[in-house]
From TrEMBL:
The protein's name: Heme-binding domain-containing protein
Ranges of residues in domain Haem-binding: 13-148
One Pfam entry name: Haem_bd
InterPro entries per the UniProt record, alphabetical: Haem-bd
Length: 158
């Protein structure tokens, strides 16, 4: 019985070690992909910093990976979060969104930030700097409302 347990544990350890050589594709895009979004929405410096520290890791093609992202299976879990985040909103693809979609996405940003549903608790647990204060939430919401107003003035196709 003891020998069987040792063999099973050794096999599990071997599988774990071998798995470290494999992982999902990294989300290592270029910061240039964020320039259209930043140029078009022109966030103030404080909001730009908030976006960088709380949004872009999961909602763009530019992710700052923590040390533990090199460990399988954690890297697959992180990749799942990033892929889901980009499906909901990808700031790197901002140019491809219509004015209506941009306004709607910004509305969702304000709503989720106000409700403290974003950034995710699982993200802020590890990234303490991403936990937003009430003042930061107010700054993001004010910026969103200003930019949304701009999109509401743009002509819509009939």
């Amino acid at each position: 019985m003891k020998n069987t347990l040792k063999k099973i544990l050794f096999l599990l350890l071997a599988v774990f070690v071998i798995a470290q050589f494999f992982g999902p594709e990294k989300n290592d895009g270029d910061l240039v992909t964020l320039e259209p979004f930043l140029a078009e929405t022109n966030p103030p410096e404080d909001v730009k910093l908030i976006l960088k520290e709380t949004c872009f890791d999961c909602h763009s093609s530019v992710t700052r990976y923590p040390w533990y992202s090199k460990i399988t299976p954690v890297n697959y879990w992180l990749n799942g979060h990033i892929e889901h985040g980009k499906e909901e909103l990808d700031f790197s693809k901002w140019e491809s969104y219509s004015a209506k979609k941009k306004a709607h996405k910004l509305e969702e940003v304000a709503e989720l930030v106000e409700k403290k549903e974003m950034p995710l608790e699982s993200y802020t647990w590890v990234h303490k700097e991403a936990k937003l204060s009430d003042a930061q939430i107010d700054a993001v919401v004010a910026w969103v409302n200003k930019v949304k107003f701009k999109y509401s003035l743009e002509p819509r196709p009939e």
